[in-house]
Amino acid sequence: MMKRLLLLVPFVAVGLLACGDAESHDPKPNKATPTAVVQKHYDLGTVTATASSTLPDREDFRPLGVVDVSALSTPENAPDDWRKVAGDQLIVLKTAHGSVVIEMAPQFAPGHTQRYGQLAKEGFYVGLPFHRVLSGFMAQAGDTVLVSRPPPETEMLDAEFRFRLAPSTKVTVVGERRSANAGFIDGFKTASQPQALAMMTADGKVQAWQLHCPGAVAAARLGNDINSANAQFYITMGYPENLDKNYTVWGRVRAGFKSVFKIKRGEPPMPPDLIQMFSLVSEMDAAIAPSVWVMNTDSPAFVAYLEGLRSEAGSMPDICNIEVPVIVRWP
After folding, report:
1. Domains, the chain, ranges and CATH?
2. Model confidence pLDDT, tens digit, residues 102-119
């Protein structure tokens, strides 16, 4: 029989094709938002989901990786302002529409980043389609069915939806999200419980999680089984807030986000856009490998950058609308 990977849609929820037994996922509607319209996907039944995004359902979000860095420092004249990303933590994903640079986050999702890095080295994704692409939601890839290839032989992954945050961890807080602190850790958009709760926990830490803001790269999974992610991934084009703490975010787009929006829409698109490259920068020829620096989000330079984003009334933009400055240099 056919198995389905289910990714909760903020406005429409459907099943996904993979191999195995049929399962379903029927989340409880969010009372603060309207229940989504239920639609069928092939013969795999229906699912319900809720709209929980506070951002508009459209494709003109501020593109990632296009912060004007001309007036900022450089890694050469202010090395403390910037963090060079190691090549084994960077993925270049290429389609007919251009290249997308993804930074992985092993500090938050070590099992998932190891898996996707391993599959990248094996060339698993080359030739696979983006088989499910929904406007204002996400672009998903990693399914082998459409191209009649066998699924990966890798085992399912344990969920890494949340991580434990120590008081010593440097977090640049920029606001709140549902009573949680919203801020940046190592340039990644996160939320966490108030640190005051740390004194009441056994390990002296609080719960934290990565946010599904536009540009998040995360793992799809099977139905209700939280420990069932394997090889399929998706890139968010909107902010499906209801996926926070329910799916593992393992990376973030650092450049080339506009290319994601050009991927053909559909479930599946016909014909779909194929992945031409999915490679670790450390495995690429030096003649074509990019160098990437991300601004240190615990640096005075980033604090100054944030101050420049404040409104006349003194408020800070929502964290999903704050992009970390990135420098990408191609040979």
Report:
1. 54-329 (2.40.100.10)
2. 999 999 999 999 999 999
76-102 residue pLDDT tens? 999 999 999 999 999 999 999 999 999
Query: What is the rounded CA–CA span in Å between residue 50 and residue 293?
Result: 37
